[in-house]
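Re: the 159-residue chain
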Amino acid sequence: MSSAESSTCVLCQGRSADDQLMRVEVWQDALWRLTMAVASETPGFAYLEPKRHITDITRLDGPEAASLGPTLARVTAALRDETQTERVYIYVFGDGVAHLHLHLAPHHPGDALNDQMIRGELITQTLPSGVTLIESKDFPPLPEADLRAINERVRQRLA
């Protein structure tokens, strides 16, 4: 990372950028910062970001990588409890800000959020296990052989 990247990064500005991003800081430690929206369609919408300039999830390393799981567990439990919901969705988008930030969204049935990650008209099927399979009519599944080949390449790379 160049110093020019972090000097122009809105998230690297910390609290001084919170007003323009319509959020407030509610917690921080040496590595992470949690802010919450003051303008949102859903109560408790929050953002977790590393203090150090890390551009995206694929570049997460060092102490931030080691602490991500415990940090997520702690902050999502607080969001869950304080918004009285059972589930907190976690989204990671590349939405025009070149600094890793996780969107944390407490979800209540009937709120503005949904669990649709696939575009198009959806087809749902309940599997014998009770899990709901969701597919798009507009984007049919890719060939299984192609998917299995990618799976194997990832398995080998991580072995």
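The mean pLDDT is 88.
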